[in-house]
Amino acid sequence: MFNLCLGILIGIGGAWLYLQPGPVAWYAWGLFAAGAAAIAFGFDVLIGSYREDERRAAWMGIGIFGGLGFLMILAGWALTF
Amino acid sequence: MEEKSSITARNPFKDPGAIPEGFVYRSQKGRYPWWVKSVDKITTPVDASRWERKTTDAIQAGFLAATLEDVKAEHARTRERMINKMRNHEPGSRLQDFALHYASETYFAAGVDAFTNSFKPEFLQIREILKTLIHPPEEIGIPRWEGSEEEASAILEAAGIHLGAQQVGFTALNPDWLEANVFVDAAINKIKTTPDGRILIPEHLKYVVVLAGQLPLAAMKRSPSQIGDAADRSGYENRQMAQERMINFIRGLGYKAVMVPGFIPPAIPFALLAGLGEIGRMNRLISPLYGGGLRIETILTDLPLALDKPINFGLQTFCKGCKKCARACPGNAISMDDEPSWTPQGPYSKRGKKVWFENYDRCSAYTDSTHLYCGACMAACTWNKGNETTLHSVARVLGATLPSFSPLMAFIDDLFGYGLVPKKRWNDWWKLKLPVKGFDSRRNRS
Q1: HSE of A19 in the Cβ direction (CA atoms, 13 Å)?
Q2: Which residue from A54, B199, B266, B271 lies 20 to 30 Å from B42 (Cα-Cα)?
Q3: Residue B164, C-beta contacts closer than 8 angstroms, at least 6 positions apart
């Protein structure tokens, strides 16, 4: 279910980006893609670690990988809009 | 070499650490992920010229010591301390934790009542009774199972997993791995004990089936406590039940199958040769799939098998820098040296291998004083991980391919909070939603 929701969200985000009126630079696409992957990985660590009763790993995972992904998307956003 | 083990039989091992000649080997392709390499020699250096066989090992010495009056008195005092912990409801030592520990070894028929330190030979009769529950083909008048060595190994592996083993491997009997009073004799057909106490194994029982029973990770990480001990005991029970069942399966095919004889028969050397793991800093087997949470059991058989090969996943380099097990050991019994050594620690270690020898006296002093099996070293191992997040898959690949970076990986492992669970969270184990028997047997198979 998590994978399905994640796939739908990334699909919506990518479609929205594609439908923007102005051109989106290749490096911005790269930043958005890498950011989405990092956030997905962060959620994978968060949910998996909770299932394993590794609470600290869960929050470290979403903090580090999710945070990194968020910064990448923020950078891509700043460069595009 | 001090004493050659073979009386009249040929030893197929020219080099004790290398795979033997004259056997069929099955393909190792697909057995492990790509980062686990199949090799022809175990990664632990072995020197045949310095090799030493012993009958009395550390555990046996502990049993013998338990017969002395002063040791008995000390055990009684330790038990009293443990009971006081129960009365005081200390985390991991409450009545329910204690009950879980001893219930976990209900079928662990080793014959030793660990709580009272008494030997109960009646337990051994259970094993004899279990043998009557199979009816070999000669008994029912049909021919025994026939097939190639590869087919035999394939069905034994499938049966082994069904019967409760987490991993199954195959190797040949190296007589020099056996205890000092156990020999291979080509002139006999059945295992027999001589009047002078030697145990003789017939040469045709030359194939070794190696089974690994897994420890439940969440309970194991609550070591040293009664909950941690429950994990330790269920690991022993898992391996022993898999062994008894596998013996009956092989007998059901029409072949002989017996436990490796001896007081505490060696298991790890066979597991190394069968490629179930490598020896790590804690001087125990570490599996690339299951980490340190395994218990090993072995079976001798005359069913011709295709053998497995040893593996290398970089552990000898990894363990040099990680040291997580040594830091976790409450008895300071695990070596902190950067390099392994040929020099044994104390009278119980066996010469002839280059490992990080543990200080058994310190380990024993801690476990005796707490009346716990502990197992903190195995529980803290960096390679113990579940299967619920991709992070572990990535970490395993990095650990095996960049083992020199293990100090950094151990630091990150600590940063993420992996390893032993703090005492304040020991009792939380009772609230966890765990899989049956506490372990995910799919681990790292995806």
Answers
A1: 6
A2: B199
A3: B213, B238, B241, B242, B245
Residue bearing tokens 């550390």: B58
Radius of gyration of chain B (CA): 21
Strand B182-185 relative to strand B199-202, pairing? parallel
User: For the CA atoms of B312, B317, B322, B326, what is the dihedral angle to 10 degrees?
Assistant: 90
Q: Measured between CB atoms, which of B218, B391, B417 is closest to A45?
A: B391
Chain A residues closer than 8 Å to B218 by CB = 52-53
Residue B342 DSSP label: S
Q: At what angle do helices A26-51 and A67-80 cross, to 10 degrees?
A: 160
| Interatomic CA distance for residues A25 and B122, integer angstroms | 78
In this structure, what token pair is assigned to residue B397? Answer: 């690949």
Global pTM value: 0.91
Q: Is A2 on the interface with B (CB under 8 A)?
A: no
Q: What residues in A contact B389, CB-CB < 8 Å? A: 44-45, 47-49, 52, 61
CB distance A61–B389 less than 8 Å?
yes
Question: In chain B, what is the greatest distance between 2 CA atoms, to the nearest angstrom?
Answer: 63
HSE value, Cβ hemisphere, 13 Å, CA-based, for B118: 5
For A55, name the nearest residue in chain B, comparing CA atoms only.
B417
Residue whose structure tokens are 């070794």: B208
ipTM for the whole complex = 0.87
